[in-house]
Amino acid sequence: MKIREVELMEVHLRLKEKFEISTGGWDERRIILLRFESEDGEIWSECVAAEAPNYSYETPETAWHILTDYVLPSVVGVEFATPASVLKPASWIRGHPMALAAVEMGAWGLEAVKKGVSLATLLGGTQEEVPVGVSVGLKGTDRELLDQVEERLSQGYRKIKLKIKPGRDVEMVGKVREAHPDAPLMADANSSYTLDDVPLLKELDGLDLMMVEQPLAYHDLREHAILQAQLKTPVCLDESIRGPGDARLALDLGSGRIINIKPGRVGGFSSSRKIHDLCAESHVPVWCGGMLESGVGRAYNLALASLPNFLLPGDISESRRYWAEDIVEPEFVMKDGMMPVPGGPGIGVAVRRDRVEKLTARRWSRKG
Ligand code: OSB
Ligand code: MG
């Protein structure tokens, strides 16, 4: 197979509501979309780099640079045997997993188009629908937070993830727990605590949380192991897991009991599947995280989440949780807290090209 042509578009999509985490916030997404053409058809993919380096060091600016100056010129027009091998000519590049993942995942998409199967089927997915959760950002007041949690629960979400940070943690989560004694709640700190905060993190243990996500430094597995040994609540790793090597180490060290897999963070689907398999062997459940993706990235996440060890609800919420209007059709809608995994060939949803054109702020293309 060969990518005959690639088109890159940066689209600006306004979020319905500001989303805030411990390290910053988003009003709008700057999303890089890739459109690949091969002799078998076309496919779209999405780069999930955040606007500012507050989740990882990648941004749309670094991804655009790495993609247009290095990755795409070396892979476009080059034959590759399997999706996993599309990045071979770019294997000398260090880092930049989100930029690379957009290409690698697009190659999986192209392979699915070529075979006339869904991406989920190609990956080895076994679940036709997956349970979904929602990530609730930091709010200005507890009232706002309580109202939003109430609304999300009434919509049927099967996991409510509360963003926390120092000063907005035990007391705030405690109020939500008090209002909803049986709700499936968890907390995500995005690395805003240290081992000095163990007493505070132990207080979270009393709130019956499904897990606490990435409490400590974004690169650290040793400290998470020290913390996990002192908590009843499972620690879930997000930022700390950059690939299968980190997952292996985390499993060996006992740094957590759950792993959040975001395909962009780990460089694509091949790496995601390896992490999934390692965790399955160790009886560690995984779930699919999100990066406020458009419908394009969401389709990829759903396909991944159909693998058998994705046992917990993912941050793969409905289109309407993010956007007034998505850029794909049909939009993603959940029923009873479950989202159907697209079954059509490729990513299984159509990109609304007219809408994408209107939202495009810059573009680049290359023919092989
Ligand atoms: O830590 O999981 C995170 C969004 C941007 C950056 C980091 C995170 C998140 C989310 C949102 O929690 C999940 C979603 O896409 O709904
Ligand atoms: Mg997280």
Quick rundown:
This protein is 33% helix and 22% strand. It is built from twelve helices and 15 strands.
3D architecture notes:
With about 375 residues, the protein is of the alpha/beta class. The protein has twelve helices and 15 strands. It has helices spanning about 60-75, 95-115, 120-125, 140-155, 170-180, 200-205, 220-230, 245-255, 270-280, 295-305, 320, 355-360; strands spanning about 5-20, 25-40, 40-45, 130, 135, 160-165, 185-190, 210-215, 235, 260, 285-290, 330, 340, 350, 360-365. The strands form four sheets. Strands 5-6-7-8-9-10-11 form a seven-stranded parallel β-sheet. A four-stranded antiparallel β-sheet has the order 3-2-1-15, sandwiched between helices. A two-stranded antiparallel ribbon has the order 4-13. The longest helix is centred in the N-terminal third of the chain and has 19 residues, at about 95-115. The structure holds 2-succinylbenzoate and magnesium ion (MG). Magnesium ion binds near residues 188, 190, 213, 238 and 289.
